[in-house]
Amino acid sequence: MLARSAFVAAAVAIATAVFLLPPASRLSWNSEEAVADMILANATIYTADPTWPFAEAMAVRAGRVLSVGGYDSVKKLKGRHTFELNLSGNVVLPGFIDSHVHFIDGGLQLARVPLRGVRSKDDFINRVKEAVRDKHHGQWVFGGGWNNDFWGGDFPTAAWLDDISPDNPVWLSRMDGHMGIGNSLAMRIAGIDKNTNNPIGGTIMKTPEGEPTGLLVDAAMKLVFDVIPQVSIHQRRDALLRASRHALMRGVTTVVDVGSYFPGQSEKQSWEDFTDVYEWAHSTKKMIMRVCLFFPMPTWSRVSELIHDKGRLLSQWIHLGGVKAFLDGSLGSSSALFYEHYKDDPQSYGLQLVDLDNLLNTTLESDKSGLQVAIHAIGDKANDMLLSMFDKVVDLNGMKDHRFRIEHAQHLAPGAAKCFGKHGIIASVQPDHLLDDADSAGKKIGIKRAERSSYLFRSLLDGGAHLAFGSDWPVSDINPLQAIQTAISRKPPGWEVPWIPTERLTLDDSLKAHTISAAYACFLDNVLGSLSEGKYADFVVLPCTSWNEFSSDIPNHVLATYVNGKQAYP
């Protein structure tokens, strides 16, 4: 196995070798007389390309794959200045694509109160208390990632926070982003009291006496968002760079950023992130990995005009993907829309966050203008509503390569998985979410319903859906290797048996869902997703030294990440 220090030395050598190439040799990667900048030799390369699934060598030129195959054929592309890296059998995979992230939010969260994995009320309070110590009087305290199911199910309340933060407003988002808790000071600043009514598409949780508990669900969160000081441009730019480094550390070379657009939140933030952060990073050459951007669907005409003016590819780094909307909320916040009521709340079937006729009309216009449409649906009723709506869109707009996306497709009614194949709908799913929901879904909707409907990856594939894996970071952490392991085993921590074992995937299915299928899901399969000739040379090197070792024991980290054939991590 190649040591980590060898990769650092290799990065310097590769950069030097490319710099020393004469100008004429930098012109075209596909020239008949092309010479490789770098050759990977003695490797175990999984290409994700069915025409040549495995290879032992790969040549890279000008950031693209020049050739892949046996060493005897690839070495013919070696020139005087070609750097050859002998991997001693190490497994190489295409760079992972995370199909669903809130990228800048994730970067911001890395610098806030970390509540993911907290398993007790005391730990929750202590982490916030520690953060408050570093704040000035009146300064907001932010955090996120908490999951009440980890400590028994009770929701936090403002009372948990008031004694430790009397002079600082606090806002802590739940892991799914569909609920948050604020202290009493934050509620007062937002003007929320017993007389405040629930907004459309949201809920202000209250005590039996009618007093706000501090919990806000979906659109109700906007009441607090409207009074939170805006995050500075400098902080958001730092967040992008921080997020990029974090993703590369996990082997992710491309993300689909669905933006800072949540129920109850203004569409304005996503556009400010584009102009103030992404365009800045592009113009100042700060981009170190690839992003595909989705914008709030209500702004579809602005997206269409932007693409008309600038094209879909701003550069090799930034791709303008399409538009995103929400139909329902989340399971953990009891706002995912189901046919049957929640087991722990017989009066609730979840929330429909938008008017379906308005959603249909906006989808029709977006699709007509050539934009890819991605819509969030978690509950079984919400997913059925979307599948029926996409039928109408095809009937009215005609057959074409729509590549409609349903984000999450988490709980499906019987027979729904087969409907995805009718129009080749993409199921953009997050395997690691099931690690949290395996224990809690039964409590929320009943064990039988949960086992019949949850995370039906195998059924979706068999029904003709295109699977694209993602993390929903910062809801779950970016960790493709763990997600692949989860999809294969479906064993949450502490479980000895799989949850719904019939829905397990093979290693090959899971790898493709994080590479070539994920690239297809955002119209980038012509340049990304597989180690095929002409595509970008984005790849990861694993610590495993054989395919058998990798397939029998998937590692929890990557050894190195390359973008454009250059080492980007470590």
Automatic annotation (TrEMBL):
Pfam families: Amidohydro_3. Residues 85-569 form the Amidohydrolase domain. CDD domains: YtcJ_like. This is Amidohydrolase 3 domain-containing protein. It comes from the Eukaryota.
